[in-house]
Design a protein that fits this description.
Length: 675
C-alpha cells in the first residue's frame, strides 16, 4: 500500500509584496536607516555610498537568510576543534557514565538516562501480504502509544568473523582439521572480495519522569508482538556501540583523542565523517520503503529521530496554519492568482487535522540523518555521491549541514538528542511505512554452519538443529549446483562432528565418503548388505504393519481394499509364527518375504473360490521378490552403522526396485534418528 506524506504543515504567511512578517520587519528597519542616512548634511555620493551598506545587509537579511548564516558561522567557530579531557569535548560528546544497563548523558544543564535496545530485524520482503499488514499496523500502534521521543539507530560495522572462526576451530572434529583450514580460507576470501559491512539495529529510549524501566518494558512488549527480538544492552555492549561509532580504541574509553570540524565534514582520530540530512521527502511512500537505503552498499550509519508532537499543541498549531494558508489563498484569489503549491499544502493541513480529530492519526516530528564514514577525503566524496544518489532515487532531498557538522554528529550519537533539528511533520499513517527492521544482515548463531550469503552479501551462519523443524530441501534446475551445495553442507557439518547419512541413488557421494574416511554401504543385487522389508527396524508391531501397507503399494502397485485386508491378515500370521506380536520389544528373528509368500499359500487354501483369485494375484506379484528377479530382498537385514559419515550407495540397484529400496532406507534411517 502507498501512503501520502503531507507537505510541510508550517507556513510562513505573506504579508505584503510576497514577504513574510519577519522580512517586512527587516525591510522596514532597512528603509528607516536609509532615510536617516539621506537626511545627513553631506555630499550626495557619500550618502549613497553609506546607504549601500545597510541596503546590502537588509537584502541579505530579507532574501539571503543572513541571520541563520551568521548563527551557523558562530557555531562553527565555537566547535572547530575538541581535544581529549577538555571541557568542550565533554560538553559536545555528552557521555557521563555507562552503568549496568543504561547510559547517562548530559544535555545542556540536564542529565538523563538512556536505554539502548538491540533489535533483530525480520525478513520483511518474503512475508505474506497479511503478515506485512499486521506488522505495519502493530508499528503504528506502537507509534501512537509513544509519549516520549525515540531514536532508531542503524550502525554499520566492518564484518568480523574472528570469534566465529575461533569457536569453529575449537569444535572441529578430530581428523578434520584440514577441512577447517580450507573452510576458513574460503570464507575470508569471500569477505575480502566483497568488502561487505554488517548493520546492526538499535532503538534508543530516553528516560522521562524517572520511569525508564517501565518505558523499556512497554517498548519490548510492543516490538515482540511484531515478531522482533528486542534485547536491552548491558554495560559492555553499550560501551562497544559507542566505541565503534567513532572508531575509538578500547584503551581510550568513550572519548576520541581529537575532533576537528571542517565546514562539510569532521575528522575524528583520522577517520572522516560527513552527516547528510533529509531535507525533503517523497509525496507517497510504500511499506518498508526505507529498506532500499538500509540495504544500500556503503559505510554509513543511519539515525531516525521520532518525536511525538503534543496533541493539544497539534490542534492549536494546525488551526493557526489553516487560517494563515486560507488567508493567503483568499488574497491570491482576489488578485486572480493561482497558487497550486499552497492549495495542496492547505488541503494536506485540513486532512491532517481531520484525521487527528477523528483519532486516526497523530503528528510526529521526524528527522533522518546519514553519517558517511571514510578514511580519505577522496573516499569520503565518493561515498557521499553514492549515498546521495540512493537518496535521490528514493526522492529524498539530501542536504549537507555546512558549518554545523558538530551538531550533525551529536544527532548521530545514540542519545536521542536531535541537535541538528532538521525536522519534518509526518502523520502516523505515513510514518508506519518508515518501519526500518525489514532486512536481516549477519546471521551468526552458536554452533552454526555457513549456509551461504543473504541478499546483502553477508554470511548466513545458522544452527538448523535449533529450529522448531530442521527439515529442508534444495530446489533448483538441472545442472545449477544442487549436488555441489549438498556436498559443501556435508563437509561443513562433518567438520563440526555432526552425524551424516546419505542415500545415494546415483553413486555420486562415494568418493566424498572415501575422502572423509566415511563408510560406504553398497546395496545392490550382489551386495552382502541388504534390508529385510519385514524387519521391524525399531518399529512397534502396529507401526510396522501400517508401514508395510505403504510399502506394498510401491511393490505391487495399486491395491484394492480386499487385497489390502488379505495382506494385513497374512502379515499378522507371518509374524505370529515367529512369536512377534504387540508385546514384542526387540525381535531377534524376523520373517522374510518368503515366509509371507508361504503364509499367503496357506490362507489361499482356506479361502473361498471368490477370494482365491486375489490371493493368486498377490502371490504372483510377490514371487518376483521371493524367487524372481528381485529375490535378493528375500534375506535378513545386514547393515552396520559405525561411522559419523555413512553413504548408502544404491547406484547399482535396478531402477525398477529403487523406489522400494529408497522407502526401506528412509524408514530405517528415520527410526535410527528417532532412537
Amino acid at each position: 500500500m502507498t501512503y501520502e506524506i503531507p507537505q510541510e504543515l508550517q507556513y510562513k504567511e505573506r504579508i505584503v509584496f510576497g514577504l513574510t512578517t519577519l522580512q517586512v520587519v527587516y525591510a522596514s528597519i532597512t528603509a528607516f536607516i536609509i532615510i536617516l542616512i539621506f537626511r545627513l548634511r553631506v555630499d550626495i555620493w557619500w550618502r549613497v555610498g553609506i546607504a549601500s551598506i545597510p541596503l546590502i545587509v537588509g537584502l541579505l537579511l530579507i532574501f539571503g537568510n543572513l541571520t541563520e548564516r551568521a548563527q551557523d558561522l558562530w557555531f562553527y567557530f565555537r566547535t572547530r576543534r575538541f581535544s581529549k579531557y577538555t571541557k568542550a569535548m565533554k560538553e559536545w560528546l555528552g557521555h557521563i557514565s555507562v552503568e549496568k544497563d543504561h547510559l547517562t548523558v548530559r544535555l545542556g544543564k540536564q542529565q538523563r538516562r538512556i536505554a539502548i535496545l538491540s533489535i533483530e530485524p525480520v525478513n520483511y520482503k518474503i512475508k505474506p501480504t497479511q503478515e506485512k499488514e499486521a506488522i505495519i499496523k502493530s508499528f503504528r500502534r506502537f507509534l501512537n502509544s509513544l509519549d516520549f521521543p525515540i531514536q532508531l539507530f542503524i550502525s554499520t560495522d566492518p564484518l568480523d568473523l574472528t570469534s566465529y572462526l575461533q569457536q569453529l576451530s575449537q569444535r572441529t572434529a578430530q581428523g578434520h582439521e584440514h577441512l577447517f583450514q580450507s573452510h576458513k580460507a574460503s570464507i575470508l576470501d569471500i569477505m575480502r572480495k566483497r568488502q561487505t559491512h554488517n548493520r546492526q539495529f538499535y532503538l534508543i529510549v530516553p528516560e522521562q519522569d524517572g520511569a525508564l524501566d517501565a518505558q523499556v518494558a512497554v517498548v519490548q512488549n510492543t516490538l515482540a508482538s511484531m515478531h522482533l527480538k528486542p534485547q536491552r544492552l548491558t554495560k559492555t555492549a553499550i560501551t562497544s556501540v559507542l566505541q565503534r561509532q567513532f572508531n575509538i580504541k578500547k584503551q581510550d574509553g568513550l572519548t576520541p583523542t581529537y575532533v576537528i570540524n571542517k565546514p562539510t565534514y569532521a575528522d575524528i582520530d583520522g577517520h572522516l565523517h560527513r552527516v547528510i540530512a533529509a531535507h525533503g521527502y517523497p509525496r507517497t511512500v510504500e511499506d518498508g520503503w526505507l529498506d532500499k537505503l538500509i540495504t544500500a552498499e556503503g559505510n554509513f550509519d543511519i539515525s531516525l529521530h521520532i518525536e511525538p508532537y503534543p496533541i493539544d499543541q497539534t490542534l492549536l498549531m494546525l488551526n493557526r496554519e489553516i487560517q494563515k494558508q486560507r488567508a493567503d489563498l483568499y488574497a491570491a484569489q482576489i488578485k486572480g492568482q493561482f497558487l497550486p503549491s499552497l492549495d495542496i499544502q492547505y488541503n494536506d493541513t485540513k486532512n491532517v487535522l481531520d484525521g487527528i480529530q477523528r483519532g486516526e492519526n497523530r503528528l510526529f516530528q521526524v528527522s533522518l540523518y546519514l553519517d558517511i564514514k571514510a578514511t580519505t577525503p577522496e573516499q569520503l566524496d565518493t561515498q557521499t555521491r553514492r549515498a546521495t544518489s540512493y537518496l535521490n532515487s528514493m526522492l529524498i532531498i539530501p542536504k549537507i549541514p555546512t558549518l554545523r557538522m558538530a551538531a550533525g554528529l551529536q544527532s548521530m550519537l545514540p542519545h536521542a538528542n536531535n541537535a541538528l533539528a532538521q525536522r519534518r511533520f509526518i502523520t502516523t499513517q505515513a510514518l508506519g511505512a518508515f518501519f526500518p527492521f525489514t532486512s536481516p544482515f549477519l546471521v551468526l548463531e552458536d554452533n552454526g554452519v555457513f549456509l551461504g550469503l543473504n541478499r546483502n552479501g553477508l554470511p548466513i551462519i545458522k544452527d538448523i538443529f535449533a529450529l522448531n523443524n530442521a527439515n529442508g530441501s534444495i530446489l533448483a534446475t538441472s545442472g545449477s549446483g544442487k549436488s555441489y551445495t549438498s556436498k559443501l553442507l556435508i563437509s561443513r557439518y562433518l567438520m563440526s562432528g555432526t552425524k551424516v547419512i546419505v542415500i545415494d541413488p546415483q553413486g555420486e557421494y562415494v568418493k566424498l565418503a572415501k575422502e572423509y574416511k566415511g563408510s560406504v554401504i553398497d546395496i545392490s543385487r550382489d551386495s552382502e548388505t541388504i534390508i529385510n522389508p519385514l524387519d521391524l527396524l525399531g518399529h512397534s508391531f502396529v507401526e510396522k504393519r501400517l508401514a508395510l501397507l505403504d510399502l506394498f503399494n510401491i511393490m505391487f502397485g495399486q491395491l484394492t481394499e480386499g487385497q489390502r485386508a488379505i495382506l494385513d491378515r497374512a502379515v499378522s500370521k507371518t509374524y505370529a509364527l515367529r512369536a512377534i506380536n504387540e508385546d514384542t520389544k526387540t525381535p531377534t528373528d524376523p520373517p522374510t518375504l518368503g515366509d509371507l509368500y508361504h503364509q499367503l499359500e496357506v490362507l489361499k487354501r482356506q479361502s473361498t473360490m471368490y477370494e482365491r483369485s486375489s490371493y493368486a494375484t498377490l502371490q504372483n506379484r510377490l514371487s518376483m521378490y521371493v524367487d524372481g528377479v528381485f529375490s535378493f530382498l528375500n534375506r535378513p537385514t545386514k547393515i552396520k552403522l559405525d561411522n559419523n559419515f555413512v553413504v548408502f550407495n544404491i547406484g547399482n540397484m535396478p531402477k525398477q526396485v529403487k523406489p522400494v529400496i529408497m522407502f526401506l532406507l528412509l524408514d530405517y534411517i528415520y527410526m535410527r534418528m528417532k532412537q
